[in-house]
């Protein structure tokens, strides 16, 4: 039987770890920092999670393990290329909105310790890059879209989806708008981004 108290303590640890990882990065985070943030002692933290690596895997690898299969399922669906782009952008923004600092964290950690970090990140599954490039190359051959390098198109999509999250503190402050209003703008981007992308490649 699992005690509610145990579930509550584990959730507190995971939430605290998210904050510390996002603030200090994987390399700079300490187990003591996480214990302090969770309001528990270090021995209790080690009871639930043996190491910092285990905590990292639980939080971030699980997040990407949900994201990548979701993207793969969209790319492998029977939808048209334009419908896939619409759903890809919408669902990607949905997922990042749940963990808005995840993309920035991943980019930061990858630049600090590329090989070990990426091995942890992609231990179970890599992003469906080949599926995406294959979809675009097929659409070009079928003359459904303009000739475009698949990676250039992917960079455009990711930039338009990720930048508003990365730049939120700056843009929100500069524009003098509330967090609620900014989140409403993020919601609008689920339609705006795919429209921009589709118009750029539509024949």
Count of DSSP helices?
Answer: 11
Q: Structural class, judged by helices and strands?
A: mainly alpha
Instruction: Tell me the series of helices and strands, N- to C-terminal.
Output: HHHHHHHHHHH
What is the CATH class of the domain at 78-201? Answer: Mainly Alpha
Q: Indicate the overall shape.
A: globular
Count the beta strands: 0
- Helicity level, as a percent range? over 70%
Let me know the CATH homologous superfamily of the domain at 78-201.
Tetracycline Repressor, domain 2
Mean pLDDT across the residues is 86
CATH architecture of the domain at 78-201: Orthogonal Bundle
Poorly predicted residue ranges: 1-5
Beta percentage is under 5%
Distance between the termini: 60 Å
**Main sheet record:** none
Q: Assign the CATH topology of the domain at 78-201.
A: Tetracycline Repressor, domain 2
Radius of gyration of CA atoms, rounded to a whole number:
20 Å
Domain HTH tetR-type: 7-67
Organism: Parafilimonas terrae
GO molecular function, one term: DNA binding
Keywords: DNA-binding
């Amino acid at each position: 039987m699992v005690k509610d108290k145990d579930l509550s303590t584990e959730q507190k640890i995971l939430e605290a770890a998210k904050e510390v990882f996002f603030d200090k990065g994987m390399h700079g985070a300490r187990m003591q920092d996480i214990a302090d943030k969770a309001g528990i002692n270090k021995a209790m933290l080690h009871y639930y999670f043996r190491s910092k690596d285990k905590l990292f895997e639980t939080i971030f690898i699980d997040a990407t393990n949900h994201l990548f299969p979701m993207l793969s399922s969209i790319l492998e669906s029977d939808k048209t290329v334009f419908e896939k782009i619409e759903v890809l952008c919408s669902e990607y923004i949905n997922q990042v909105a749940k963990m808005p600092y995840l993309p920035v964290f991943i980019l930061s950690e990858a630049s600090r310790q590329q090989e070990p970090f990426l091995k942890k990140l992609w231990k179970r599954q890599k992003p469906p890059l080949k599926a995406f490039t294959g979809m675009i190359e097929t659409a070009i051959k079928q003359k459904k879209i303009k000739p475009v390098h698949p990676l250039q198109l992917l960079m455009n999509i990711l930039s338009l989806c990720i930048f508003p999250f990365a730049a939120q503190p700056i843009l929100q402050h500069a524009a003098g708008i509330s967090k609620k209003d900014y989140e409403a703008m993020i919601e609008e981007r689920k339609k705006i981004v795919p429209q921009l992308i589709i118009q750029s490649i539509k024949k």
